[in-house]
Amino acid sequence: MISKLKDVEDTLADFVHQDRYPMLVIRASDVELIYLLKMLAALDQREPAHVFGIFPQPVAGDAGGYVSSVLSGLREQLQPIDRVRVAEGKPSWPALPARCDDPAVAPGGRLRAGIAHAAGLVPGGLEHRLVFCLLPGTIARPAAFAEALSAVLPSRQPPPEAVWPRVRLIVRDDGAEPLVIEALRRMRNPDVLVYEPDLSPPALMDAMAGEVADPSLPEPRRMQTLTELASLDYAYGRLEEASGKYEILYDYYRRQGNPLMQAFVLQGAGDVLRRIGRVDLARERYGQGLTLAITTQGLPLIKAIAYSAGAASLELGRFQDAEDHLEIARKVAANLHDRPGEADALEKVGDARLALKRPADALVAWRDAAAACREVSYKERLVSVLERMAKVFAAVRMDAERRACEGELAGIRGGAPIRPPPPSSRA
Question: Tell me, what's the pLDDT at 423?
Answer without folding.
Answer: 54
